[in-house]
Amino acid sequence: MVYQRHVLTGRGPMSVGHHAMLKFPEAEGSGVVTTSRLMRAQVLPDLFERPEMFGYSALKPGAEFRRLEKVPLANGGETDVSRYPARKGFDDLVMLSADPKSEMAWTAVTFAKERFVYFALRDPRVLILGGIQFGFLVGSYGIGIFLPQILDTGRLSSLEIGFVTSGAYAVASVTMILWAGYVDRHGNKVGNLALACLVSACGFGASLLFLDNLVASILSFTVAVSGVNAARALFWTIPPRFLTGLAAAGGLAFINSIGTSGGFVGPYIMGWLTDATGSFAAGQLALAGFLLGAALLAWWLKSFDAE
């Protein structure tokens, strides 16, 4: 995953080009290009390649088009530029401008046979939100599945472990409702999301300091799950602030596709580290790290609000 940002200053004419370099398979039409809604699409007005330089272009210079599947050719007719490789021996350049009314602009290339997808987004906040959700879901599912086993130290019966675990989540539920109500009244959703993830990270970290103190350990885990639950409540109020209409469906789905993978990573990394070290401590430290990362991403998200 690559994030790139350009900040331009100064006056006068300026031409800025930024594009990815992708290696396509040899088979013709093996890659399929799709984009978000376009405001304008045009072939380079001048020849991209010149015969005197032993280069050839196939597309009609300066031709405007609305669909990638129907682009005018220099010798008449139309061609499909949404599939590549194509038009062997010819090199062309087309320029695509996203519709500014779209909250999220994207370009994708799919390689079905190779099972590979390239996806580029205009709005980095979508990626940041996906990372935030991934981080707190790693913590949520990691502790949710393993908390009863962590408490099974021989000092509590199975019935008591059940009550303690239920009690921790009952407190977390109340905390979630109260915290969400506070944010609804006073605002600063992104800042409180960062704080919730940080509180959860601190709870996981504190649980490592009180390994021999059962009461303090239980309180630490309660703080951890309270922070995660609060983050869940606050998180989904943020994307609708900049994703609306058609962009909301794709944006929310993309955020969720990244974030929900944390539901697999959390339990997996807890189990793997526990087997590798013979202790739950390494897993708890890993969950704290993921929550701290989510808090830092949420704090970074605040900088976009400031702009």
Strand content: 5-15%
Named CATH architecture of the largest domain: Up-down Bundle
CATH first level of the largest domain: which class? Mainly Alpha
The spatial strand order of the largest sheet comes to 5-1-7-8
**CATH H level, superfamily name of the largest domain:** MFS general substrate transporter like domains
Total helical elements: 7
Helix content: 40-55%
Structural class: alpha+beta
Characterize the overall form: elongated
The major pleated sheet works out as:
4 strands, antiparallel
Give a brief description.
The protein is α+β, with helices and mostly antiparallel strands.
Give the SSE layout.
Layout: E1 31-35, E2 38-43, E3 71-72, E4 78-79, E5 83-84, E6 94-98, E7 106-111, E8 116-121, H1 124-151, H2 158-186, H3 189-209, H4 214-235, H5 245-259, H6 262-277, H7 281-306
Describe the structure.
The chain folds into two domains: 31-121, no CATH class; 124-306, Growth Hormone, Chain: A (Up-down Bundle), CATH 1.20.1250. Helices cover 51% and strands 11% of the residues. The protein is built from seven helices and eight strands, in the order ββββββββααααααα. The protein has helices at 124-151, 158-186, 189-209, 214-235, 245-259, 262-277, 281-306; strands at residues 31-35, 38-43, 71-72, 78-79, 83-84, 94-98, 106-111, 116-121. A four-stranded antiparallel sheet has the order 5-1-7-8. Helix 1 runs antiparallel to helix 4 (214-235). The mean pLDDT is 83.
